[in-house]
Specification:
The complex is a heterodimer. Chain A is mainly β. Chain A is built from two helices and ten strands. About 4% of the residues of chain A have low confidence. The radius of gyration of chain B is 24 Å and the shape is elongated. The chains are: A mainly beta, B mainly beta.
Chain lengths: 233, 252
């Protein structure tokens, strides 16, 4: 025991001497708060705005926002969507709001401009109303005319996302988001089956693809922590 | 744009309002040998008639604009009512195709058939094989099969206990229901050539429940000829089979 104490005392002494004489101390940890947000990005979907102004059967808009937590981004979308279609035997209209929330993971960790390539996940919900009128004829059952409406339909779905965010100029960012939508469930389709769901799209297939092109404005909260050092050659 | 065009649905047979009905024997769960003659949907001016290959199975159209369709099915000389209830909801398909009616939750109601059940609750959009409704017939326990020595045209067959339908065509095989209330049946044959012949049969009766859905049935056995005015009557089988086998061979 006495020998062990002596050895430990010598070790402490040498350590103390080393602390006093070593002037190249370890750098202070500058990324202690790296999971605190550094800013918020708010943007809109350009494609929805263009479609609203160029297509007769679509009106809608979408705003997007994300907040960074290191390489993870909490993201929220909110939008409005309305469609109307007409055929020789039927007309269809819907109108409602939707939102999506999820997380993106950035895989460009060493980009000086903090550009992003991400893969993410979303949970989406929509609430909308829809109407349909039918004037048709069957070779066995004859002519038929009627109108239908679902005043309160709610739907939910899941998405896998991927895309980029690129800093264009100071606080202006642009990017796209590709979406693989699945797991659609709806309630309130009492009189008719939905044809189109705001934020999701057509319902005649089990999965759907979507694409948004967005412009963002970033509001910084604090300086971003330094990038991790690159590998030495 | 190109993907959008390729992604549009086909505008053919959009409504899934075709219901497959199979006629089966309760004893074997196989296709029945007694087919149907006509099926008439209420509210229409059409009638389904069988082909040689569709005697025991038929695809019928239900009304996509309603939640119920009634059918009158003529089989074995009788008319049976069959009602199909379902949920029919419209759905917009596309600007090219218009709408379609989606039918689901099929239910069947009939007090006339021995037993009916839903095999598949979602109708089809094409007239393909696939059974939605199974109509079961309880086993025949009181009808015999008579084979005449030659085909002959029968004007009428008279009994005191039931009416037996006849056809104007010359036939040699006849299905004769026996009197289940008594142990003897007297049958009078009136031929179109003016001849009249009588046949009196004796047999034993026993009430038995062969299948729960059929309830108690009178099973006839030990068939024998009490008297006749034909040239000869020969008993080939004393009990009744389903499908019917020849019980009597009659020489005119």
């Amino acid at each position: 025991m006495r020998l062990l104490f002596s050895i430990l005392s010598l070790a402490v002494a040498f350590t103390s001497v080393a602390q006093k004489t070593d002037t190249t101390a370890l750098p202070v940890d500058t990324v202690k708060n790296r999971f605190l947000p550094t800013g918020i990005r708010i943007g809109t979907d350009v494609i929805a705005l263009i479609k609203s102004n160029t297509q007769d059967n679509f009106t809608g808009w979408e705003v997007n926002a994300d907040v960074d937590f290191n390489r993870y981004y909490l993201t929220v979308d909110y939008g409005a969507w309305g469609r109307n279609f007409a055929s020789d035997s039927a007309t269809y209209q819907n109108d409602g709001r939707y939102w999506r929330a999820g997380v993106d993971v950035n895989f460009l960790l060493k980009d000086v401009e903090r550009n992003m390539f991400f893969i993410g996940f979303r949970y989406g919900r929509a609430n909308f109303s829809e109407q349909m009128s039918v004037i048709t004829k069957d070779k066995i059952w004859g002519e038929f005319t009627d109108s239908y409406s679902n005043p309160a339909v709610s739907s939910r779905w899941l998405e896998l996302t991927s895309g980029i965010r690129v800093k264009m100029y100071k606080f202006i960012w642009m990017g796209y988001t590709a979406r693989f939508k699945f797991g659609l469930k709806s309630n309130g389709q009492n009189q008719m089956i939905s044809h189109d769901i705001p934020g999701y799209g057509r319902t005649d297939k089990e999965t759907a693809w979507g694409f948004n092109y967005q412009i963002f404005f970033r509001i910084p909260f604090r300086p971003a922590p330094p990038l991790p050092p690159g590998k030495k050659p | 744009m190109a993907i959008s065009c390729l992604d549009q649905p086909d505008c053919f047979s959009l409504n899934n309002n075709i219901v497959g009905i199979a006629f089966k024997r309760l004893s074997t769960n196989r296709a029945d040998t007694i087919g149907w003659q006509t099926i008439t949907p209420a509210g229409t001016n059409i009638a389904y008639v069988p082909t040689p290959t569709t005697v025991t199975f038929v695809n019928v159209h239900v009304d996509p604009f309603s939640n119920s369709t009634q059918f009158a099915i003529e089989a074995g000389g009788k008319v049976y009512d069959l009602r199909l209830d379902y949920l029919s909801r419209p759905q917009f398909v596309s600007e090219d195709c218009g709408e379609k009616f989606v039918i689901s939750d099929l239910k069947v109601f009939s007090e006339a058939f021995d037993s009916v059940r839903v095999a598949a609750p979602t109708p089809k959009s094409q007239p393909v094989t696939g059974t939605n409704i199974e109509v079961f017939r309880c086993p025949n326990t009181s009808t015999i099969k008579v084979r005449l020595s030659s085909a002959i045209s029968i004007a009428s067959i008279q009994t005191s206990y039931t009416t037996i339908a006849t056809t104007p065509d010359a036939i040699s095989d006849i299905l004769l229901p026996l009197n289940t209330a008594e142990s003897q049946s007297s049958i009078t044959f009136n031929f179109t050539d003016g001849r009249t012949r009588t046949l009196v049969l004796n047999y034993e009766r026993e009430s038995r429940q062969l299948y729960h859905a059929c309830g108690s049935q009178v099973v006839i056995s030990e068939l024998s000829v009490a008297s006749h005015t034909f040239t000869d009557v020969k008993v080939t089988r004393t009990s009744i089979q389903d499908p019917n086998q020849v019980n009597l061979e009659i020489t005119l």
